[in-house]
Amino acid sequence: MEFDLIDRIRRHTDVHRDDVLTGIGDDAAVVAVPTGRELAIAVDTLVEGVHFPVGTAPADIGWKALAVNLSDLAAMGATPAWALLALTLPTPDEAFVDGLARGFAELATPFRLALIGGDTTRGPLTVTVAVHGFTAPDGALLRSGARPGDVVMVTGTLGDAAAGLRCLAEADASPYAALVDRLNRPTPRVAAGQALRGVATACIDISDGLVADLGHICAESGVGADIDAAMLPRSAAMLAHFHDADALQFALGGGDDYELCFTVPADRAGDVAADLARLGCGAARIGRVVEGSGVRVTDTSGESVMLARTGWNHFAA
Amino acid sequence: MEFDLIDRIRRHTDVHRDDVLTGIGDDAAVVAVPTGRELAIAVDTLVEGVHFPVGTAPADIGWKALAVNLSDLAAMGATPAWALLALTLPTPDEAFVDGLARGFAELATPFRLALIGGDTTRGPLTVTVAVHGFTAPDGALLRSGARPGDVVMVTGTLGDAAAGLRCLAEADASPYAALVDRLNRPTPRVAAGQALRGVATACIDISDGLVADLGHICAESGVGADIDAAMLPRSAAMLAHFHDADALQFALGGGDDYELCFTVPADRAGDVAADLARLGCGAARIGRVVEGSGVRVTDTSGESVMLARTGWNHFAA
């Protein structure tokens, strides 16, 4: 394409890596994987009006498009290395592209993630990112290793992004900036995922909601999970603005938090929480892995909590 | 996503590879690159109404989305290994997805290309594929090595896809099936690209049109190119339906042919043509690399040929 938007993006994301032998500008990138490392690869698409509201700042879109992908690498315990960016947009709007590239670079740079390729096309606003990261042989965190007796844990706090989305409907969303920021600028838990290698028996990132995503661990591991609603970590920002019942639903069913949900043997849970705390990442025990199937949530009186909506289904949205 | 279209696609594309350690179904795929191999990576997006006409058969869309990416690997001389597929579609139409997956698999299977990951989202019809292939160390074909005196060559015939696109405007396009097929089902020149390793000094695939893409080789190599219009390989199918002037414009400026354009030292051109012929791939000399810059096309009387349109600019389309 003559109007080379990808070159414009490259100028914002100037991470040099010795393992990038040919970067943007040829028919394909050429890279070298270090000896003794396996490669984790993920891809995710964000569509305007489906995965981010119309009117979202370009820099937030760029950040989020990379964040949701780095979150997949985090859930594998992988170390980020390279990304591809395929950007479809209605007009060749240079200011928009610059903003998007800035947000992308803000997140890429601290991880030393190099943008090695891309494509720009005309059409409805859609951003697809593919990321590549390294893992040690047999070192990737999978969804399939949870065992009855393991403790279920999550990083950070849950429900903030869903609460933030609700706040955007307000005439003045500024009092809820912290929640909206959690929606627009999720923090991929990359260091936490790496710290969980060799310890967590299963791991997933929470993109569709806790119950839905923990459900994937249960299905892949052939187990069930009992969750204690009172143990779910919820932010002061969310609790200041929402009733407890709403906040609980956000924490259980809200998507887009991009925290990690993982299982560890019960005798390792304390050490894991301490290790993650040293990384500046909270980690809370929220329940246990049990025989059976599916996720059951109970409140302090032992009653089952019903989920208003099981995860985000973008086809139903 | 609960409605797991990617799982549906996986069932159609069942290529087993030992180097895929974790395939579709976790947060990321995990793969192993063979020792002593570098990795070539490319990504391309097709948007409905921009890169393929509305109403294109789903199987043709699936084929083409992979073909344009394999063509990038071909232009690097790489051996295909793995792909990711990010599919955005307006409704979860299972018949459409099955058709698209069938076309994708038809092309993937003979190359033993494994689908290792993907994403399905709701939105305007858009298909993004990322492909990964292997090259020997320092063995990738780049755009930057053309030298004055080299011969410029192309595989196959030029202009058929653009001619096919023109034919689709006809009330009955069936007489032009061979041309329309070249538009909808391009053949990535993977074996030819591999045969050019160590011989071609520069290589690119023709996606935007010969003059535009050869122009990239000239710019990256710091050279110019003189092309003899009479030498351009044009198919009998195209010449049967179009005047010579139109056919020439298609051959020079039409995109979507996905043939390879490459440069070789003059004393190797004969051997290269013979090697490619053994692979069932035609290869024609069309001109020479010269000092200077830019692409100049001349007819038999030595007059410069003007290009009606320089390549496809999808933002201008």
TrEMBL record, chains A, B:
UniProt KW Acetylation keyword: no
PurM-like C-terminal domain residues: 147-298
Binding positions for substrate per the UniProt entry: 51, 256, 312
Root EC class: transferase
Domain PurM-like N-terminal: 25-134
Amino-acid positions noted as binding Mg(2+) 2 in the UniProt annotation, renumbered to this chain: 44, 72
Binding-site positions, ATP: 118-119, 143, 207
Residues that bind Mg(2+) 4: 27, 72
Positions bound to Mg(2+) 5: 208
Substrates-to-products reaction catalysed: thiamine phosphate + ATP = thiamine diphosphate + ADP
Keywords: ATP-binding, Kinase, Magnesium, Metal-binding, Nucleotide-binding, Thiamine biosynthesis, Transferase
Enzyme nomenclature, EC number: 2.7.4.16
SUPFAM superfamilies on file: PurM C-terminal domain-like (SSF56042), PurM N-terminal domain-like (SSF55326)
Highest taxon in the source lineage: Bacteria
Family: Belongs to the thiamine-monophosphate kinase family.
PANTHER family: THIAMINE-MONOPHOSPHATE KINASE
Task performed by this protein: Catalyzes the ATP-dependent phosphorylation of thiamine-monophosphate (TMP) to form thiamine-pyrophosphate (TPP), the active form of vitamin B1.
Protein name: Thiamine-monophosphate kinase
Organism per entry: Luteibacter sahnii
Gene, per the UniProt record: thiL
